[in-house]
């Protein structure tokens, strides 16, 4: 399986899931909590330029737009992009969504004040590449907000890829907060702060250990 084959398989998987994805999603079941946690993590005192990488159905993008930020979301799955656009219309918020691989984001360097990456890194063959892209897109002092979890704790709530595909994804079983901190430092980020403590309990069924971290472009 080539890298292109792996990406095509991941994209097809998420496009197939897109129509029903929000029915079981944490950002829908725990919408008010996610809104409060992301608002705190953004730490913005006014409208900012936000880029949401691996946007999916628009969880982070829609919250950012509701907070008054200028938002662009990108996802490799056309099905997810269509779902995100529909969700934005239903919510009555303005957010633009485009189909693009994270490594091919059609956005200029230093175009964003905030970049979000929620539950994306575990689906990538080269997760560090996404962090470097986020770093490139941010202005000096800009903020990355990244969230993920140790999905192997509750596999019934995790996507199940074919074994050959899963073997190509280094974070397929999830990621711990200490490991994420090391990756952020390696990618050139500093001032790393946790925000998951604002949840009264894990927002995912099965008490999946998760993190929500903010980090600044040095």
From TrEMBL:
Q: Does the keyword Mitochondrion apply?
A: no
The terms under GO molecular function for this entry are: S-adenosylmethionine-dependent methyltransferase activity
- SUPFAM superfamilies reported for this sequence: S-adenosyl-L-methionine-dependent methyltransferases (SSF53335)
Supply one GO BP term: methylation
Which domain of life does the UniProt lineage start with? Bacteria
UniProt cross-references to InterPro entries, sorted A to Z: Methyltransf_11 (IPR013216), SAM-dependent_MTases_sf (IPR029063)
Write one Pfam family the protein is assigned to: Methyltransf_11
> Keywords assigned by UniProt?
Methyltransferase, Transferase
**Which segments constitute the Methyltransferase type domain?**
51-146
How is this protein named in the record? Methyltransferase family protein
